[in-house]
């Protein structure tokens, strides 16, 4: 059968990989740094980054999985796209909260 999501696979894998790299770099530096955040906000940032990263890893799995249901390719891709957007929004929300807190502390 024809691979209907082939044209979308490479750009989304590339975007996911780049975003994961930025998020993991942020997380590695964030863990080592002294934060101006309250404990509750630090948990919020950590949870956003964790869930966002998990969503992006799920997206990579779904994109690289060659045994997806070909008769439901459009639905499969749209679900993957929604998970991608959720992961990006959550991860960047955490990053933006931390950036804003650091900006306001200075």
The sequence of SSEs as H and E is HHH
Structural class of the secondary elements?
Answer: mainly alpha
Overall shape: it is: elongated
First and last CA, distance:
58 Å
Individual helix count: 3
Radius of gyration: 16 Å
Low-confidence segments, given as residue ranges, are: none
Strand content: under 5%
Largest sheet: none
Number of strands: 0
Mean pLDDT: 90
- The figure for the number of domains is 1
Account of the protein in words:
By secondary structure, the chain is mainly alpha-helical. It has one domain. The protein is built from three helices and no strands. Helix 1 runs parallel beside helix 3 and helix 2 runs antiparallel to helix 3. The model has no long low-confidence stretch (mean pLDDT 90).
């Amino acid at each position: 059968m024809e691979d209907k999501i082939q044209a979308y696979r490479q750009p989304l894998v590339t975007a996911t990989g780049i975003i994961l790299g930025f998020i993991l770099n942020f997380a590695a530096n964030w863990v080592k740094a002294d934060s101006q955040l309250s404990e509750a906000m630090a948990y919020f940032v950590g949870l956003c980054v964790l869930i966002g990263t998990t969503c992006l890893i799920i997206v990579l799995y779904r994109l690289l999985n060659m045994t997806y249901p070909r008769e439901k390719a459009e639905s499969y891709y749209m679900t993957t796209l929604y998970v991608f957007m959720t992961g990006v929004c959550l991860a960047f929300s955490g990053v933006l909260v931390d950036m804003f807190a650091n900006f306001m502390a200075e």
